[in-house]
Design brief:
By secondary structure, the chain is α+β, with helices and mostly antiparallel strands. The protein has helices at 14-33, 100-104, 130-145; strands at residues 12-13, 37-44, 47-48, 51-52, 56-63, 68-75, 81-85, 93-96, 108-110, 153-158, 164-167. The strands form three sheets. A six-stranded antiparallel beta sheet has the order 2-5-6-7-8-9, with no helix packed on it. The chain has a three-stranded antiparallel beta sheet with strand order 1-10-11, with helices on one face. The two termini are 24 Å apart.
Length: 168
């Protein structure tokens, strides 16, 4: 398979940097499209209405086609589960809570953009996964190509342990 374009040794700016990022993302999207699904440990922390929420850790399973996501919360509310499968259950998110609320409302079924589904997140579950994120980044890069005020810089940095990191 074709690999990504080489990262520059020095600093790259402007349109050439933006084009390189777009080219890389297109290669990533093609590679992601070739896999059926994956599992991951997902860490997130979001700011909602100006308040930084808690660190959240979830076991995550994603199926690409048809699109499906399963999340099992590991922290801070272990055991909570959220499932979405395109074309199933009227395209609703199914959630099982924990603790006392599980006895009061054993299962919640709402559309992905319902306020209850978005109570602890800014993003619907239909936006989850690496392919969805990559598609969003590609659309931003394409917008930047035609924006004379967009600033794109590519370089490398080194952390305290001496590891080299690619940066954009």
């Amino acid at each position: 398979p074709e690999g990504p374009p080489p990262w520059p040794e020095g600093r790259l700016e402007g349109a050439p940097a933006n084009q390189l990022l777009l080219d890389m993302l297109l290669v990533v999207a093609k590679r992601l499209d070739a896999i059926d699904g994956y599992t991951a440990t997902f860490h997130k922390q979001e700011r909602l209405k100006g308040v930084l929420g808690p660190d959240q850790t979830m076991a995550m399973k994603v199926r690409q086609r048809p699109f499906a996501v399963y999340l099992k919360f590991l922290a801070p509310h272990p055991g909570k589960e959220v499932v979405y499968a395109e074309g199933h259950r009227d395209n609703k998110v199914i959630a099982h809570s924990t603790g006392v609320s599980r006895w009061l409302v054993p299962r919640l079924a709402v559309l992905p953009d319902h306020p209850l589904a978005l109570a602890e997140t800014r993003h619907a579950i239909t936006e989850a996964g690496l392919s969805k994120l990559t598609a969003k980044l590609i659309s931003f890069r394409r917008l930047d190509l035609n924006d004379p005020e967009a600033i794109t810089i590519i370089d490398t940095t080194t952390d305290n342990a001496g590891r080299r990191w690619l940066r954009s």
